[in-house]
Give the backbone structure.
Amino acid sequence: MSTVQELDAEYLAHTYGRFPVTFVRGEGSALYDEEGKRYIDMGSGIAVNVLGYADAEWIAAVSQQAGKLAHASNLYYTQPQTELAQLLCQRSGMKRVFFGNSGAEANECAIKAARKYAADKVGENVRPVIVTMENSFHGRTLATLAATGQDMFHHDFGPFPTGFRYVRPNDVRDLKAALEQDDVCAVLLETVQGEGGVVCLDESYLKAVRKLTEERDVLMMVDEVQTGNGRTGKLFSYQHFDLLPDVVTTAKGLAGGLPMGACMLGERVKDVFGPGSHGSTFGGNPICAAGALCVQKRLTDELFSEVERKSRYILQELSPLPNVKSVTGRGLMLGVESNQNAGQLVKRLLNRGVVALTAKTKLRLLPPLTIPDSDLETAVQIIKEEINQ
Ligand SMILES: Cc1ncc(COP(=O)(O)O)c(C=O)c1O
């Protein structure tokens, strides 16, 4: 065990089952440990490092901003935050943005926005319920845990906030039943359930959600914390489906490695918040915003077609393997169900210099969007060998 690992065991809260590796630096799609061993990154720090590591433009943007102005309270205007909000609105179809520091915070903001929207219209506590999907994941704060439609998260930390109702994903009838009682202000969903095992919601279902929510003046809120920022081959995954949600949340890849979350408010909800109704000390911090602006400028249609091409390559290579049962997901967010134990498989891959993730029983692949073909091909070859065992 290295010193770092011994000190970690003594001084860190034991919230993570860590792998016995200490990373010290990264470059492109490669990570290096204390001994200088090179690993190909197929996880992006769980969908964060969209441009890989040590990207020259991103370093310049962030360090220049750090030298100019690292932080000013949200009581004042700052240029990078404003510019980023404008760009996100122009590219998403949303109208205003609230910045926080994480995915959970972005979803907390969405939950508050939905409750406030209904409160303004029909009175407080008349329509407080937010419908979410079984098998979803929305974060680790108390409200976002309550929003998460997996029982295993609903223990030990109660009482949890109330006002959440779970429905079966891809089941329109179940959704209709949940909306029948006139107490619902919003439906919150991921188009691809990431932590839930890289499970795609059907296009027809997403369109039905949009139609049913519109008819009932209920908000459609899409959690793009994991699927956003080019991950699925569009800037935001709902853009595959010719529909516009009322609220979109994102984080992870947004600032390319710095902590930042955004809750983007569409036309119907753009004015729900007034001064004092929500806030964050660090949200929209100039350094994070400068990093995010750099990421946004790099997330071009050209990059998205590369994401699609690399996705097809992984699918073509892994789907036909006799030990592979299915490959699910979209773009560079893929889940591989095989007859290998996913946890064991990830450990073996790490030993062989490939960093990958699990999602429930699946191997989960979330490489940097900029991964070069040479690294991708090597990683896929190693994955094939380990799955073929
Ligand atoms: C879909 C989704 N929403 C929310 C979150 C929570 O994000 P954070 O860990 O940044 O709070 C995650 C994290 O995995 C996620 O995948």
